[in-house]
Amino acid sequence: MEKSTVFNNRLLPYLLLLPQLVITVVFFYWPASQAIWQSFLREDAFGLVSEYVGLENYQALFAQPEYYRSMLTTVIFSTLVAALSLSIALLFATQADKNLKAASAYKTLMIWPYAVAPAVAGVLWFFMFQPSLGMLARPLRGMGLDWNPLLNENHAMMLVVMASVWKQISYNFLFFLAGLQSIPKSVIEAGAIDGAGPMRRFWTIIFPLLSPTTFFLLVVNVVYVFFDTFGIIDAVTGGGPAGATTTMVYKVYADGRLGGDLGGSAAQSVVLMVIVIALTAIQFRYVERKVQY
Amino acid sequence: MRPPQRVAPPYSPLAIRYSLPIRHSPVQSMANVTLRNVRKTYVGGFEAIKGIDFEVGDGQFCVLVGPSGCGKSTLLRMVAGLETITGGEIDIGGRVVNQIEPADRDIAMVFQNYALYPHMTVYNNMAYGLRNRRMAEDEIKTRVEEAARILELGAMLDRKPRQLSGGQRQRVAMGRAIVRQPKVFLFDEPLSNLDAKLRIAMRVEIRKLQRRLSTTSIYVTHDQLEAMTLADILVVMNGGQVEQIGNPLDIYQKPATTFVASFIGAPPMNLMPLRSELKSQLAGDARAGEAGIIGIRPEDFVISNETVSGGVALGLTVEAIERVGAETFVYGTRQQEMQGVAATPGELPPGEVIVRIPGAIGPAIGERIRAVAAPDKLHLFAADGRKRI
């Protein structure tokens, strides 16, 4: 049931909404509209003159094979990161939900990585796996594995995926744990009496009851892998080797900031925005329908 | 010779509802539940259950009653297998189940909050336990539909629990238990989330259903009225121990301790220390020497100026009156008892006496009355309240 509050003053509700609206307009609508406008412009090399070019930036973009490659990279990267961080976090949360002795210490430790800035996390992982110095890279090489994320594209991808997953597990863990704790214990006990073993209880009772949490995290994680992993990628691989870890958001940065192609970069960010909006809309439309109970 | 004329049996509509056949598994084994010196000690050393022995016979309805925190729910959960047993044995149908998983104990439980699976339809809620046991779908269908008919849930099978009222959810929880056709039903305060009217209706339903299925049942409640009306055997618990076991009426008429005396019966029995004035009234009673506490139920008083030989007469000042229509409760105080006696929690303040009189006519507030009880209505207990004399 919706509860509605009635304001006597007609201005007050708008006034109360104003701070949020201002923030949204200044930090989202304004830059977004700027990006859209800029995607129709071409700047000269010195940034002094802009010329309206219509859809030329988009045409150029979709003619680039590298752009399709960055799309594919993004699909692989985001699928891996979202799937791994969600499933590992769920596994950890189910363990933490048991009555363990050091449960609270365990939970605190689990949450720490979330407090680490993405770039710092990236540097951490980069050092650990740097082929000639890395603490963990040396044993790998010692085992005869030719570990080299600086040259090997798959190794580079594995490294950014690991770092991004590590960073996101904390967040997912917190929500999963809260979700698990909100499932009434008696429902699970009823399942036990009804003859369902631990695995069956998990998949037929706990997992379906967690689905609102899972859905929420899916949306958040998709946005995370599309945008927030930028810092990690920049610190770990800088998009390399040979563009193997250049995701769409990284390409926006590389082309615009490093390549100086502001119009092309703006066109890319518009495409990216459309993709994320579409993905979120699809998730809400199709996945959310299944989480209702 | 003419065959005897057939006469339709005098079925009431309810009797018809409950006389529909319920199929039980062909081998219906005996399902006694026996507790032998059962104990529960938590890791911190807290002893929740301090050695409990009792037996529930096949098909009997046993009610565990006691104040909150007395261990009754813990004990039930131990029978269910949801809590470990740290001492003694629990035996279901001739098999010690201490180490057996809840699923394999052949029990079904109805929880206080119903514990329905919120994401499943009513049908699937009932079918879940059967599917886990790999029963054929058509057999499941038969059983669920039968249970739904008995519980009048036929129209709700496709609904989710959130679309049901409290009473309907309660029925689904019952249905989930009965489709399993277990040896034992366990009920953990199943009616306490319902409103008063529905609670009484469901109480009657549960009793009828249990009689119909004759499945051994253990029922936990803190409501002494539920306990009295449902039980074949009543187990009164307090502080992790059994205070008294027996037929509800026996317990009502002959409470073994002052705890039972004050817990069973509403309003509670009047318990008074047996001191000078009362003691002299009981001079002729052989039991009075040992006794330290006297108990008289409110309904055993008569307001009268006559003296019953061997009985007790109390001079009271009327402090408050509760008229509930069919009966009137008079709260009076005995002036000479007001001082120096500490009240125990849950009992009446010292010197206060409740008298129940039938009908709506009674004394006025401030009036002085004389409440008289006959000698056979007196309950005498040892001074510590632990022993009936």
TrEMBL record, chain A:
GO terms for biological process: transmembrane transport. Keywords: Cell inner membrane, Cell membrane, Membrane, Transmembrane, Transmembrane helix, Transport. Pfam families: BPD_transp_1. It is a multi-pass membrane protein. It is found in: Cell inner membrane; Cell membrane. Coiled coil: none annotated. Residues 71-283 form the ABC transmembrane type-1 domain. Its main location: membrane. Gene3D superfamilies: MetI-like (1.10.3720.10). Belongs to the binding-protein-dependent transport system permease family. The complex is composed of two ATP-binding proteins (UgpC), two transmembrane proteins (UgpA and UgpE) and a solute-binding protein (UgpB). Part of the ABC transporter complex UgpBAEC involved in sn-glycerol-3-phosphate (G3P) import. Probably responsible for the translocation of the substrate across the membrane. This is sn-glycerol-3-phosphate transport system permease protein UgpA. It comes from Bradyrhizobium australiense.
